[in-house]
Amino acid sequence: MVEKSRKTQIIFHFIMIILCIFCLFPFLLLIVSSFTDEHVLIQEGYSIIPRAFSVAAYEYIFANSATIFRAYGTTIGVTVVGTVLNIALTILFAYPLSRRDLPHRNIWSFIVFFTMLFNGGLVPSYIMWTQYFHIRNTYAALIVPSLMMGAFYVIMMRTNLAQNIPEEVLEAARIDGASEWQILFKVVMPMALPIIATLMLLVGMAYWNDWMNGLYYLTQKKYYTIQVLLNNMLQDLQVLLSSSFSANVDMSSMPSTSIKMAIAVVGALPVLCIYPFFQRYFVKGITIGAVKG
Amino acid sequence: MKLKKCMALGMTVVTICSLLAGCTGDGETKTETESVAASGSTEAAGESGDLSEYFHTKDHYTLKVMAMGDADTQILEEVSAALSEITEEKLNCDVELTRIGFASYMTQLNLILSSGDALDLFIPMADPSEYVQTGQIQPITDLVERFAPNLCSSLEERDWMSMIYDGDIYGMPVNGEKGQILGFGMRKDICDELGIDYENFQSMDDLHDALVKVKEAHPDMYPVVSNAGDMFGGSTPYIGQDSCGDSNNLAVLEDPFDENGKIVSFFETDLFKETCERMYQWSQEGLIMPDASTNTDSCNTLVAAGKAFGYFQHMTPGWEIEATQNNGGIETVAWKYGVPTYIGGRSGWFVPTASGDPERAVAFFDLMYSDPTVANLVINGIEGKNYVFVDKENGVITFPEGKDATTNGYSRLEWAWPNERLSYTVEGLETNWEESDQFTESTQVPVCFGFKFDSTSVMNQITACLNVYEKYVPALLCGSLNPDETIPILNEEMEKAGIQDIVKEKQAQFDAWKAESSEN
User: Fold this and answer.
1) Beta B179-187 vs B332-342: how paired, if at all?
2) Considering the domain A66-292 in this protein, what is its CATH number?
3) Where in the numbering of this chain does the ABC transmembrane type-1 domain appear (chain A) (predicted)?
């Protein structure tokens, strides 16, 4: 690579630092306001330096730990199981598609492409999931609807495998007497590690942040994930105000601002901790195909 | 198809006539209504025996009921089990109760209704006209009389009016507060401190003077705040007009009580102009919080934090007690202005078209409406877990130790259930139903009460107008925009969006409705 001049470096660093501040500032504000006293928050507004330090919001979370930690556990469970299942399905679909000798390859590809571009819409999906698969009010409601919705991931992985795993490697494996399963597990998967890690990160994030499935398919509180819980807390007031019952309800019983912030912090924390470890794969997984191209 | 409609119409006439016969005008003395009610209840007892026999000849069924509010799954199961014990004997069915918090209630309900999922009885969160227009709920005209005898015997004719669409009864109205009035709520301690005589305000000018005093004495406090962006309570800024047949506030009656009133564009009325001008003036004087239209805190939160003096809201009798509780114990008083308006029975319970057994659904509503045990189960949950008695004789309850309204596991939304009058009252929040009845009697009935606007033919115009509405109206009503400049722009954009089509269509339907109702 050509050495960039010092001037350009400074300019690019400057731009990056500004962008970084744009990203970090709201997050910092979120954390600080979760530690600020509720009354002060309303009286003085948000500020970067807490005017009155308080851990009341976190005390509330721990006092309601039954609900919140249950939701937390559900989120972790759903994310782990969902990610593993999703990646397994994606590999099992994408790997055959990447092979040129797959019979009717075009039809399979078409199915993936078509469903990526067009889907059934909300109500038909709802009818299918609730009346034929009966997933309402089960943990499956949080996992299954997102499982095969990742046509994009399948295509991404198929392209990546097709470009990075030379035909010769597979041939060599076959000559050595490996079965198709052995080729998949012992040859293809180790070679595809960067893209698998990248997809795991994407899928995992999608599961962690998902609240739509909870909104549609859950009516029982015990199945709520942390995101569903948080979304409900945030939306309650807004939805109520747009209904005809706004005059009837005691609005003060809605969770306060600092509690919302604290739950948002608790919800985002694990992602923050995990992200750095996946990051190196992330960059590699996305660029590797192009570089070797 | 035609025949069916004719028959339905015939049934409506019969039902309404019989209702009329049951309840003579409300001017008549109370003793008569009481005697009617008394005879009604003995009759009902006999009839419910028949009903139970009737249902026992039919197959066992599980009734699915859905209502608003958060509740723990385990508590819901217990309540459902307790309900089923009662309904097993009376209706030969089990009850499965679902409660969903406000945030997802509408989404869930719409999904269930449009997918034709199993549901037998629910309370909607929005105007039910849409469900009628799409055929998602069914008419129950010929069911209510037989299967809801207690409801029929206690309702006045006008209570049904809001539940009738195209001549058919679709819903069963709840029994609660039936009137409301406009008001301005404020902190009592500051009124006392500054000698504000809130009870004898004559006009908005008096309120204005009081607010100026507050501003001078407490510069760190906003004299007027909005409720999460809404100045006049809720998304329908009811400032004296009547939205007339829907809840959009686009084509309205400027004076709800004028027999000869014409439908006009809300934004061309003097009422709207005056209100916006007043709010703008107040806002310029610093009497209104600066970012009122984008404020996301509720007015109660702001008062409780000592940041606000007062706010506008719709009020019912006993509002002060509730407001004091909502404002974190800061004693709140109110100046009530405008005309006490009859709104009775606006919310009701409905039976989806997909219901497997509308007869039992109606009968179960009647049970919630008339049976105190059932009513208290659905409203308050389980004794000892969700509430404890303070005074069992008078039915006064409180939350168990260490719990409050948000953490007791079964949120108490008494107004969303069929009959809140049967419910125990929470200590400190006792509702005085006599006062409420007196207030209801003092209310005036808007001329368009019972009129339903069928918006199908002007759907596009409504969507376009609502977009324009969102752009300007909340900010105008919060005094953030200069009305002299903005109202002309608003009206111009409204014209382009087709507000006159809505006005014309509504006027035509309103005229037809008036002609029809005067015939009866």
Assistant:
1) antiparallel
2) 1.10.3720.10
3) 72-278
